[in-house]
Amino acid sequence: MTPRKKTAILISGRGSNMMALISAALETDFPAEIALVVSNVPEAKGLERAAEFGIKTATVDHRKYPGDREGFEKALNSVLHENGIELVALAGFMRLLTPYFVNAWANRMINIHPALLPAFKGLSTHERALEGGVKLHGATVHFVSAEMDDGPIIIQGAVPVLDDDTPETLGARVLDIEHKIYPKALELVASGKAHVVDMRVTSGGTKRSEDILICPAD
Ligand code: GRF
């Protein structure tokens, strides 16, 4: 069996996507092993949850590097290298990364964003989707590039936007699909199936898993 890719998850908060990745990687034939969880926030709830699953955790507190983004990222990079990390998955990691860090992990770092990119980059995506009146919303996993919420798209999941949705109900529907697509994306990347050519990802997926999603449905 090919060795599993040693993966670090970077978080800042509760870590529900982190948990989806940890759960998927409990299967011994999953191509990634979650070897480390790192947070920039010492009190992030996700750190406790990871530790409960016996996963090594670390904190690199960005507040210890005022005005020195690269110093923070160098410290983060050291922790990743000390632990032999090969892939990085950002899961609610609320720090913008500089080209130094992004280039160091080019094609080896992925992120999940709660919208169908390239629509609704940035924060408050569910509010903006409702304001925009879109009928389909969703989530995207992409390779990280130096631009925020940008980079080759690996997988997307769409959900309907219903007439009576609030940001909370829509956000909960999107979060469900995030937990489904993030493990699939990590599987594609860790198994070497996701190839980036001209900023587009191909992954040999020829099967259609679901019917076309149309909303309103009738
Ligand atoms: C998710 O909505 C993710 O898409 C975004 O930040 C949120 C993190 O939530 N990048 P969680 O910590 O994974 O529960």
Describe the structure.
- It is globular and about 55 Å long.
- With about 220 residues, the chain is an alpha/beta fold.
- It is built from 6 helices and 9 strands.
- Strands 3-2-1-4-5-6-7 form a 7-stranded mixed β-sheet, sandwiched between helices. A two-stranded antiparallel sheet has the order 8-9.
- Bound molecules: 5-O-phosphono-beta-D-ribofuranosylamine.
- 5-O-phosphono-beta-D-ribofuranosylamine (GRF) binds near residues 175 and 178.
Q: What is bound: which ligands?
A: 5-O-phosphono-beta-D-ribofuranosylamine
Q: Identify the CATH class of the largest domain.
A: Alpha Beta
The CATH homologous superfamily name of the largest domain equals Formyl transferase, N-terminal domain
Q: Name the strands of the widest sheet in spatial order.
A: 3-2-1-4-5-6-7
Please compute the radius of gyration using only Cα atoms. 17 Å
Count of discrete domains: 2
CATH architecture of the largest domain: 3-Layer(aba) Sandwich
| Share of β-strand residues | 15-25%
Give the CA-CA distance, first to last residue. Answer: 48 Å
Structural class, from helix and strand content?
alpha/beta
Helix content: 25-40%
Q: Output the number of helix runs.
A: 6
